[in-house]
Amino acid sequence: MATIPNSQNFPQFSQADIISEMKKVSNIDISDFRFYPAIQNRPNEIIKIESEENGIVLTFGTVARKALLSYTHETSLHLYKPADATVDTLYLHINIWTDDIFRVVFSKEKKISNPFSGLPENARMLIAKPEKVEFTLDETENKITLTTSKTEITVDKKTTRISAKFIDGKEYYSQKKQDFRTGDIHDLALADSDNDYACFEALELESDEIIYGLGERFDSLTRNGRTVDFHNKDAVGTTSRRAYINIPFYLSTKGYGLFLNSGAKTDWQIATTDLSALQFAVLDSQLDYFVIGGKTPKDIIKGYCSLTGFSKLPPLWSFGLWMSRNSYVSWDVVDDIAKKVRENDIPCDVLHLDTAWFNRDWNCDLKFLEERFPNPEENIDRYKKDGFKISLWQYNFIPPNDDNEHYHEAVKYGYLSKDKDGNPYQLPETCQGSWVKDVTIDFSNPDACKWYADKIKELIKLGACAIKTDFGEGIAEDAVYQNIDGKHFHNLYSLVYNGVVFDATKSVSGENIVWARSGTAGSQRYPLHWGGDSQCTFEALAGTLRAALSLGFSGIPFFSHDIGGFLGTPTDELYVRWAQLGLFSSHSRCHGVGDNNYREPWRFSQESCDIFRYYDKLRYSLMPYIYEQAEKCTETGLPMMRALYLEYPDDRNVRYIDDEYLFGESLLIAPVLKPLSKTDIREIYLPKGTWFDYHTKEKIESNGMWISQKVDLRTLPIFVKEGTTLKYCEVKNNLQNGMGEVVKTEEYR
Fold first, then answer.
1. Could you confirm whether 533 is annotated as catalytic?
2. Is the peptide bond before 327 cis (omega within 30 degrees of 0)?
3. Which residue among 152, 192, 354, 473 is the active-site one?
């Protein structure tokens, strides 16, 4: 066995086998630190190899190690010492799902468990079944090999290392194995702490390899060197590591993607504790992930969506402008908005009622207050005749108010999450926040799902076009849910919640629409999502774009955000810049916090309103292109707003670009993300090819180069790819009866 550094043979080291000390110095984000110094049971030797219908299962003997906190002067790191194993055998399944997708399941139990078995299949992240794939299984003295028409998967018998390569010979995936001396890398292991478990995995990370994805990330487009807060929560802004939508899927420039099929709390360390390793740990006794090989990033995203589902196509009208504020407080206010929209010649399709349509703000009982919102069916129909849809806000919590019949029904029939004593769960007194007393609908309970879906259906029958599923990311892990435990349900909850509302809406209207804030893997099946509560700053605007592009790497094709920002009050300049980005997002909504904190364009300067109108009308005129691209997204899994890497993976210059994007296949958008007081020059990268400046029609031949463009407030740099045909339709003030006739065609040759 390798020599273990200690104070005798390496005097510069001092060691502390103390968890509290590790808490002080560890930069690992996972909330439960006890698993890092815990006993880690690792595969040591292959005891048995057994064939399964679609792969193999390996039985391992184990060897154990225990982490030490080691110091050399002011440097601290993890080293290891041998320990007594707490598990005698470990099991690993390698299952072939398609010619280029395989599944790895690692556990102390031979049988693969399914923590989602209590939920219907459409409420799970993984919805695909393995295909019948022809593969060969070969065994030699040194290795085991499974080969499909596209992929060769190898297990090294000596080291137990698993790797995979394309048939043409390029290795794209490999486990990283460590000896006992090295620190800060936790390779494949099962950790045991007081009969609770965590699983670790480490993969080799090449020096020039870039990782994208993991859901909605406001801090950076690339994940290398960034710690990840991978626990759905109210992000309260778009400039931090917090996220509403954590998706356990990433994409590598090496030619593969990885989907972790788990809702449990996960820690990702990608070139953080060690630059040569991509590591993840999950607070569960089973590690279950899929490796998706692909020669292009488009192939990888399509493979991921083949496992978790493709998005449905939202209705045409949803691609029009949504006008909103938190909140319009009466039909009188809505009437004024509808009137001003038309008077100011602003094409618009949806007027949204946020938190104030109940008897009082946030008292979510799904009933219109008669005093301020009388005759809802009649009024919604009136707006419809004027070309406006009405969407409605609600959330998954219920205020426990005496006048909330919704609450009393849920308590009576047991539709709420519970505490250990069987009472409706409420957050403890030590928690802070506006809604700590609210109770949570248990969407793991099929009766609760039906009960709530029936209420949503009644709203759609009244004429509502869509439901905003706010929140969903903050449910308690220590609550009791009927068909799943809290640690697996926290991140998954929003998928089920959004699905219930989406399906209820579709059952009445036939349309694919929900307006969702939170999500996880598979959430693309229920479009669409918006970026949450952004601040009114240019930094938050830039963070919103990064989130859109990161979600695009994570299988979410349709995305919106609050034009102007939500928290605060935007300046005229910020409002215009946000509108330019928002009107070239898949969906466009003006929204902000406060009854009198306006986001309607006529509330800003005349110049601002004129610029807004120009880009709004441009959007409506380009609807043939937008809707055609949206249809393609539902077939490919690609996003409407896509990072340049997705279209130009061989161009190393685009790997870190997060301030411009392709809107569909053919339009390159370079939004202005800084105030003019800082600069009036926009640096823009044009990938190799021929491009046309949309505004001037100037033809630019690029070998992959940066250009500088002077901008004023009106300028949104747009470039069109050579070979594009843009069709323009007649601009109508809404899309309720379809887009207008094609009135012009532009060829970019």
1. yes
2. yes
3. 473
